[in-house]
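Let us work through a complete example step by step.
Step 1: write down the sequence.
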Amino acid sequence: MRTPILLIVALAGLGFSLSAQADILELKNGTILNGKYIGGTAGTVRFDTGAGTQVFESSQIMVLTFTTPAGTVVPLVPAPVTPVAPAVASAPATVTLPAGTTLLVRMMDSISSKNKAGANFSTKLEYDLVVNGVTAVPAGTTIYGKVQSSTQARRAFGKSTLDIRLTQMVPAGSPVPIATSGYQQAGEASIKKAARGAAAGAAIGAIAGDAGKGAAIGATAGAMKKGETITIPAGTLLEFTITQPVNLQVGG
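Step 2: predict the structure and record it as tokens.
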């Protein structure tokens, strides 16, 4: 808030000659200046003392006195200050990933049938998830998972099993719980979609190469020999399907 100028008095009352028509500016530090008021703004006053024009902040001024030739007091009315409303951030929009949405992710950790149920692992989303033209989850978002169940077969007895699920995504740094089906090898449609979002041909080639790796792992897991370990190495592309709708906030 600007500090108002507190008092305006008639020049004649201070014993000065009206013919001189000198204005008087008294500052809060005790300085008194004789001269002429030549304008100002809502927060400043321009005052000419004969030695040059000076600009003073309103907060520095105690009294500004000036008169007309008739001796009447002319009040100095500063221009009104229009308050500036604080910027209001737009409310974030809510979008929903429907059940059945496919998540194509790249394994960041190696996981195997030797890992116990509850073991954690992390992945990265391969392409943007877009809902009604809005990017709900950008490519590269971290998505965490857990081993749902696992069985490590003994040598030459039984087959190993491995069931892993995705449990949480972290778009824009905010964790959101999710529920998915078990994994499967990356399908051709998902690979093509990821390739369209790749920045360069080399990246497309890398995605296609990893797709082959994912397919091989899927086939191996489905035809395991007795006693063998199921292993999904880091870098493998896998698909999961969201089984329950996921509400996300975007923008804001």
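Step 3: interpret the result. Residues 201-222 form the longest helix (22 residues).
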